[in-house]
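Run log // design_07
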């Protein structure tokens, strides 16, 4: 072997490996098992796992563990039902950068009353994971499902039973094409983030039926052609940048709580003017201020117009949108 190849071998970094925790079994091409960590062990980090399967009850006995992280594994393919079952102190689960993970069984996340944060990102799964048996009691539970390009549908009742308090859903960058009727039924939503789902075209008119909220709705960089007319009453912040397919908004009366909006077309803001003076209340009259933003918004070089409007409760005057703005 020549000198240069030998030098390259010496300088080339060795393959990244992780040491399987002493209390776990991580047999290559086998199933993970972590039956008992002992008292005081609070974080389990499993990176570059060689195993193919996380079976039922894989973490049984980890009563003190607060965080479980599974990441950077090219071998992991399946998580079976009850893989994360009755871990009563567990607060965070992170499953990230496991592109060959194609299956998460129904009920994989079961009876996790203190779970605050579940992140499932950059995997190969083809269906939205079942989170309906988590039964978290934590306020503002955060579910992050992102960069899973093979998930095409958010089905009905997908989050019912996830938690019994408020929740933030960060569902961005996936392969979603459709959100079905009653998808968010049974939830109390602080924020619903659907941005960067670039194939998302259809959100059923009853997708938000049965839900309370959301207070914040972000549909930026999607192909949604319409918003549901039901369930927008609680929306205080609407974000719809780079939403070029959204040519028409629901009737302005649906946005009775809206305080702030970031929109794509000037004509979006024009939808909120010319309210009848009779029957106006304070929550409806705030829409008059949108027209001021219509007049002052400049068109960007790429013909996208971004409207960012914070709507105060004072100095409300009615102005007509200028004729040169897009008419939809």
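design_07 sequence
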């Amino acid at each position: 072997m020549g000198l240069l190849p030998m030098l390259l071998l010496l300088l080339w970094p060795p393959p990244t490996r992780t040491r399987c925790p002493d209390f776990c079994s991580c047999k290559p091409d086998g199933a993970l098992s972590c039956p008992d960590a002992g008292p005081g062990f609070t974080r389990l980090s499993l990176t570059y796992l060689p195993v193919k399967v996380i079976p039922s009850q894989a973490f049984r006995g980890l009563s003190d563990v607060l965080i479980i992280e599974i990441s950077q594994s090219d071998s992991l393919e399946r998580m079976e039902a009850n893989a994360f079952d009755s871990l009563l102190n567990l607060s965070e689960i992170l499953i990230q950068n496991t592109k060959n993970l194609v299956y998460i069984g129904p009920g994989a996340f079961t009876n996790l009353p203190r779970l605050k944060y579940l992140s499932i990102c950059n995997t190969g799964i083809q269906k939205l994971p079942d989170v309906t048996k988590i039964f978290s009691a934590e306020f503002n539970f955060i579910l992050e499902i992102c960069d899973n390009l093979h998930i095409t549908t958010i089905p009905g009742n997908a989050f019912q039973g996830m938690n019994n308090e408020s929740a933030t859903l960060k569902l961005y960058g996936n392969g979603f094409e459709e959100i079905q009727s009653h998808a968010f039924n049974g939830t109390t939503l602080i924020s619903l983030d659907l941005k960067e789902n670039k194939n998302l075209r259809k959100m059923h008119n009853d997708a938000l039926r049965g839900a309370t909220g959301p207070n914040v709705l972000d549909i930026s960089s999607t192909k949604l052609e319409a918003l549901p007319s039901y369930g927008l009453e609680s929306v205080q912040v609407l974000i719809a940048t780079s939403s070029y397919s959204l040519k028409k908004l629901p009737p302005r009366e649906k946005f009775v709580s809206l305080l702030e909006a970031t929109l794509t077309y000037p004509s979006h803001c024009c939808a909120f003017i010319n309210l009848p003076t009779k029957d106006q209340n304070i929550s409806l009259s705030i829409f008059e201020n949108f027209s001021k933003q219509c007049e002052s918004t400049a068109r960007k070089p790429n013909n996208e117009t971004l409207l960012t409007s914070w709507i105060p409760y004072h100095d409300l005057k009615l102005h007509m949108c200028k004729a040169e703005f897009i008419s939809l």
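The two ends are 71 Å apart (CA to CA).
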